[in-house]
């Protein structure tokens, strides 16, 4: 009986430990950036479809996760592939497409824990080739590390712009539905713990019944 009690105690401990881990979210960084209105295709990416000569409009959401005021520098950049790695250039000489066509506020000040929605435009030239163009909105927090060293923090919100003669509406993400899905979709570790816990409880019941029969 002692062995059964130990097994059940361990199972309960594992169960509640992992249950707490399921509800623990990683702490955010200094600030975040992402689509203000996420799409249901790739929510973390800004997806646009427009004709040549049109002006594509969208917005990003910035959030300061610190308890102090920060200032961010915003730019629109092309995506470059160098050595099989994606990079985003903020050098105007290297930009040829989205980085040249786009306009956005150059700087934004965010108070402690403040969030702001920033709009931007991409003016597509009339003679643009029908194709898919990739880039990003880059947000940079200038920092210092003493002496002559400077450490900047830069994060991006990727952009995928399809220039086509037949643009289609981009399906938007149902935030409420997505949140509910995340809440009620525990990881395999969670379900594994449930199975272990129930198995131990069934074993305990079976052992108790067997013990009662032996006493009779």
Your description of this structure?
The chain is α+β, with helices and mostly antiparallel strands and about 220 residues long. It has a domain at about 30-175: Immunoglobulins (Immunoglobulin-like), CATH 2.60.40. It contains four helices and ten strands. The chain has helices at about 1-20, 100, 175-185, 190-215, and strands at about 30-35, 45-50, 55-65, 70-80, 85-90, 100-105, 105-110, 115-125, 130-140, 155-165. Strand 4 (about 70-80) and strand 5 (about 85-90) form a beta hairpin. Helix 1 packs antiparallel against helix 4 (about 190-215). The chain is elongated, with a radius of gyration of 26 Å. Mean pLDDT is about 75; it is low at about 15-30 and about 175-195.
Q: What would a concise description of this structure say?
A:
The protein has helices at residues 2-22, 98-101, 175-183, 188-215; strands spanning 31-35, 46-50, 55-64, 70-82, 85-89, 102-104, 107-110, 115-123, 131-141, 153-163. It has four helices and ten strands, in the order αβββββαβββββαα. It is an alpha+beta fold and 216 residues long.
- Please report the distance between the alpha carbons of the first and last residues: 17 Å
Q: What is the approximate shape?
A: elongated
Q: Percent helix among the residues?
A: 25-40%
CATH superfamily label of the domain at 31-175: Immunoglobulins
**Count of distinct strands:** 10
| Radius of gyration over all CA atoms, rounded | 26 Å
